[in-house]
Amino acid sequence: MLRYDLIKTILDKSNSSPIVSNLGPTSDELWQATNELELHPRNRNFYTYGSMGLCSSIALGIAINTSEKVISIDGDGSLLMNLGTLSTIGRVSPVNLIIIVCDNEMWAQTGYQPTATAFNTELEKVAKSCGFKNTFKCTNINEFKNIFTKSLKQNGPTMIVAKTKETGTFPDVTPVEPEFTTYRFRNSMLNNTKDKL
Ligand SMILES: Cc1ncc(C[n+]2csc(CCOP(=O)(O)OP(=O)(O)O)c2C)c(N)n1
Ligand SMILES: [Mg+2]
Questions:
Q1: What CATH number is given to the structural domain containing 25?
Q2: Which domain holds residue 134?
Q3: Is the C-beta atom of 1 inside 6 A of ligand 1?
Q4: Which end of the chain has less neighbouring CB within 10 Å, N or C?
Q5: If we measure between CA atoms, which residue out of 41, 31, 33 comes closest to residue 12?
Q6: Average model confidence (pLDDT) across the chain
Q7: Which numbered atom of ligand 1 lies nearest the CA of 22?
Q8: If you measure from the C-alpha of residue 74 to the centroid of ligand 1, how many angstroms do you get, rounded to a whole number?
Q9: pLDDT digits (tens, 9 = 90+) for 138-181
Q10: Verdict on whether the full-model pTM lies above 0.90
């Protein structure tokens, strides 16, 4: 499945839930898909440009401070760099956290080098052994749609490993300023009942 289709599905089903995205193409595609679906500025998108490995850690911090569902769209290479975060999430066990890993089995943005998931590491099994309540792996978009829709109604923490394919091209880097992302996101969480999007 394509990461872009997965991201559009997430946006379509998530209402105003906070979404934290991995650096690089994941954040660029989240911005583009938000644009395509006419949801801009969607203040609850948190683009983690530059913060490799911290996507799910940031999502954990948000999840323990809200009762809303919080969605992390992580990458295999980034999550492998900070694998300890799965152990921390398993320990804290936030019921409202959903982690989706776009597992293309590579560090795509830096030249398609294979990661450990192309060999022996299975991230859904790692999550399970860390104490995640629900863990899934899927390879096509319909499967993902079903799992994600169900996960929005269930208590987590939940891990969905989505096997994604690269197209060979990346979207343009989007003009997102980290300072504005923080400002918009924080305000939208503080103004809980209005202007969420
Ligand atoms: C600490 C740190 N090391 C390395 C990089 C360079 N870098 C940027 S994106 C990336 C690959 C990320 O891989 P993954 O999370 O699997 O995302 P993908 O590119 O496959 O979408 C790397 C190594 C960085 N930004 N920060
Ligand atoms: Mg990757």
A1: 3.40.50.970
A2: 3-189
A3: no
A4: C
A5: 33
A6: 95
A7: 15
A8: 11
A9: 999 999 999 999 999 999 999 999 999 999 999 999 888 899 99
A10: yes
